[in-house]
Amino acid sequence: MKHDVTVYIVDDDAAIRDALSLLFETCGLRWRAFASAEEFLASMKDKTPLCAVVDVCLPGMSGLELQQQLATKEIQSALVLMTGQGSVPMAVGAMRAGALHFIEKPIDPKKLLEVLDEALARRAELAVQQEGRHRALTRLERLTPREHEVLALLVEGHLNKVIAGRLGISTRTAEHHRAHIMAKMQTQRLSNLIYMMLELRNSSAAHR
Amino acid sequence: MSIASEEPSHLIDAPIESTLPFSRLTTSAAMRVALTHELSQPLSALATYIFAGRRLLSAKDLDRELLNETIENAETEMNRARDVLKKLRGFVTSEKPVRLPVNLLHTLQTEAAHFDNEARMRAVSIHVEPGWLPLVTADPIQIRQVLVNLLSNAIDAAAGARDGVVSVRCLYDLETIEIVVEDNGRGVPPEIAEHLFEPFQTTKVRGMGLGLPLSRQIIEAHRGRIWWERTVPQGTRFHVVLPLEAPARHET
Q1: Which residue in B6, B12, B16 has the most chain A C-beta atoms within 10 A of its own C-beta, making it the best mutation to test that interface?
Q2: In the predicted structure, residue A199 carries a pLDDT above the cut 90
Q3: What is the ipTM of this complex?
Q4: Nearest to A36 by CA among A6, A68, A65
């Protein structure tokens, strides 16, 4: 497993932090370790999706609270939660909040690496999605107010003729706007455009 | 994901917050939770060190120093796990009593000095009132364990207060000595106040909740008494009273 991302370790037990960091080092992984969720959160400077191995049972902010805090700060995360007393309601709660991976303490290192691999793959996915959204947003900014109006109607599935009627412009002008929108959004197909817009809408809804 | 659990339902319902109100659990359930946690930590680290050590061995350039350090760390973790079991065994069975003359003021001063660094880092100051104290006949190791436990609890409590202070006083008369350990922390949470001397009751994330039960067992084996009270405006005061001559026979 070779990744150029950092795996964060959050555990208040110094020996576990030390052992995990050594393990990750032998796997060629970059790591950073924190003794508390608070310190970890304070060190987060940007909103790049992250991958972290987190003890559920921490003094102060718990691993589960950390997960919620990350979500509130709009930081997407692929977390491996280390549970001491694995209990079903807790697991279900965490799943609902979006965490994907669990490992029970005492840790089986081999299993941890497998789970971590999945979490890293998930993080990569999140990063690609985020990039896509950023790209789409930058492109959106280049649209004129009129083009925004046309886009909204396009996404609703209206034909050029209908759009023209709604906005009080000629069909030819509507076609013109549509061509500009497609060019600025860098896509040839209407279905791609609609997909892009839905993705953006979903992600901003998820953050609310 | 392996979250499936065969725990009885009262365990499943147990809250997982850092302040576990264990009083709602039965002692044996609480003991299992505490033990599982206390053993899980060192075993996790131990397994990881061994696994990583094996990877170090198979690396192209063998880093002997790092490997050696890793083995040492694994050993430390193994001892940590062993200490947990030792502590538990010490609680369950009482060993043959030892009775020697002990200077408890001296013990207190030595132990307080050991805690000095930790206390300072947590902005707590420890004061042991100087003076003189008659010798008591006691098991020096066991009694030290009690005093260490009281000091450590008091520091934990005081660390949560502004200007944390732990003060220790010793009193005596013709038959008994009394040790008073006081902190100005937030006090014993009401939900565990009644169960403070029962095993596996703890508000700490780390620790098994054996310190006070063990202390009481030791003090009672010395024919002494241990109790606590709340202080004003805030804080906790523990009293230990010991007879100057503790019988070595088991009379129970």
Answers
A1: B16
A2: no
A3: 0.77
A4: A65
